[in-house]
Specification:
Oligomer: single chain
Structural class: alpha+beta
Radius of gyration: 12 Å
Bound molecules: iron/sulfur cluster
Number of domains: 1
Helix content: 10-25%
Length: about 55
């Protein structure tokens, strides 16, 4: 149950894409939480389930 194996983990930027991005104060760009490969949370969904749906 790690971010690195979660369907919401965006590998290139090491971000969690579970929810919509938060607005930034300064640069007005979208920001998703940066997570580590071995982080985790209760919203975890294995990547394998994403493949079965597609
Ligand atoms: S385990 Fe949680 S924090 Fe990590 S990528 Fe999945 S939803 Fe995001």
């Amino acid at each position: 149950m790690e971010c690195g194996h979660c369907r919401f983990y965006q590998t290139r930027e090491s971000e969690c894409r579970r929810y919509a991005p938060s607005p930034a104060e300064g640069d007005k760009k979208a920001h998703w939480p940066t997570v580590a490969h071995d982080d985790w949370c209760g919203e975890f969904v294995p990547r394998e389930e994403q493949r079965q749906v597609a």
